[in-house]
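Input (structure):
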C-alpha cells in the first residue's frame, strides 16, 4: 500500500518518474520492510514453476470438490432443523 501511495503522491505532484526510479524506489521499500532483494534469476526453471503451480492447483481443486457447496450446506442445515425434535423441528420425516 505504501508503494502505491507513494506512486499516487508522485503523480499528484506531477513529478516525472522513470522506470529506473521506480525500480530503485521498490528496492528501497523492500529493504525497509526487511525483505531480501533478489539479485539473480533464481534456481527454478519456468517449466518447474509451471509444473509446481499446476500440482498445487490440483490439490486446491480436489479440496474444493470434496467440500459441500453453499447450496448443499444450506440444504443439509435445513434438513437437520426439520429432523430436530422440539417445537420448531418437524421430528421424523
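Output (sequence):
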Amino acid at each position: 500500500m505504501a508503494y502505491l501511495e507513494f506512486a499516487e503522491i508522485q503523480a499528484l505532484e506531477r513529478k516525472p518518474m522513470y522506470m529506473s526510479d521506480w525500480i530503485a524506489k521498490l528496492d528501497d521499500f523492500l529493504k525497509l520492510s526487511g525483505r531480501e532483494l533478489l539479485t539473480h534469476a533464481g534456481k527454478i526453471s519456468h517449466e518447474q514453476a509451471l509444473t509446481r503451480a499446476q500440482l498445487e492447483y490440483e490439490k486446491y481443486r480436489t479440496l474444493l470438490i470434496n467440500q459441500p457447496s453453499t447450496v448443499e450446506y444450506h440444504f443439509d442445515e435445513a434438513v437437520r432443523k426439520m429432523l430436530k425434535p422440539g417445537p420448531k423441528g418437524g421430528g421424523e420425516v
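Notes: The chain has a mean pLDDT of 88. DSSP finds four helices and no strands in the chain.
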